Amino acid sequence: MKGEETVSELASRFGVYPTMIHQWKRALLEGASGVFARGGKRKPEIDEDQMKELHAKIGELAVANDFLSRKLKPWGVK
User: Fold this and answer.
1) Contacts for 48-52 with beta carbons within 8 Å, 24 or more apart?
2) CA distances from 54 to 25, 62, 63 (A)
3) pLDDT for the residue numbered 58
4) CA gap 27, 22 in Å, rounded
5) Predicted pLDDT at 76
6) MF terms per GO, please (predicted)?
7) How many angstroms separate the CA atoms of 50 and 45, rounded?
């Protein structure tokens, strides 16, 4: 933002494409005013019920993953 380095220099320094730097800069410039706008906090994108549902799904998947990894060990699969 300060213009101390070129986009090419920043891209090579951080290992990203120059187009990503342009997109990030555009997103920052378009959304920066909303960060400082009055009106309080933004509503979270995921509510508590969704969060609980997602945590339950993570638990189910972890149990299934553990079960399958134990069942596949005799065949040498990791």
Assistant:
1) none
2) 32, 12, 14
3) 96
4) 9
5) 79
6) sequence-specific DNA binding
7) 10
